[in-house]
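Attaching the record inline, Q. Sequence:
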Amino acid sequence: MIKKQLIMEKALELFAKQGFEATSVQQITEQCGISKGAFYLSFKSKDELIIALIDYFMMQITSDIDYIVRNTENDQLLYEFYYSIYHAFQMHSDFAKLLIKEQSQTFNKELILKMQYYDKLIEKNILLLIERLYGEVVKETKYDLMYSIKGFMNMYSQLFVFYNVPLDLKLLSESLVEKTTILAQHTTIPFVTNELSQMFKQPMSEEGTKEQILENISQKIDEIEESIEKESLILLKEQLIEPTLPPAIVKGLLENIRNHSHCKWISYLLRQYFEY
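Structure, as predicted:
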């Protein structure tokens, strides 16, 4: 395990128990069995570590949603979308609970901007999902429907986060598919118009540029051990620099890296870049 990954995993355990504020760098280094100097070689500060954890968590969710929205057949799309969301919250409930709590208390501008960035990416995927499923039927109400879906995501996720009761993911997903379909088919009075939605738009990061993606790929190639994922990353990097491979091969390489936890975000960025 590389040192940066070790620090993130051990810090997450402490944060889940104590919260961000109550956990010190000293406690993290003791938990990892490393010196403070080794910590600061990986992260400039505790705040940078926190942002790295948020990135890791949100990149997994955002990448999975994007893949589902772009690759699932329409008759299963809404179900798979909801199932993926709540499965992720169930699997990472400790961090999700911490994140929701910290968001309601924090004045950290970087953390707020980071969460707004991922929120906008998820909104983009929800709108794509809505347009795929309902098309012109929801032309006037699609933004209201998007905010309704976000409301479902937020409120029902809290069942996993704050209440330790077993929940049937299949039943929950089916129930929300029914609710969303009813809203899509019968809502006729829009509140959030296209003009009003423009007021909520914010500038997006330039993370998806060719140069940024190349930098990310190079970093991951150095970090991960020899594997099919590493070989695929090398070929994808070459494809970015000088395109020679047919689309089918590129899609296959993207599929090779999609489920690797440290390659999900690169897979997401490349799908956006290649428009797959």
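The two ends are 32 Å apart (CA to CA). The first helix runs from residue 3 to 18.

More tomorrow.
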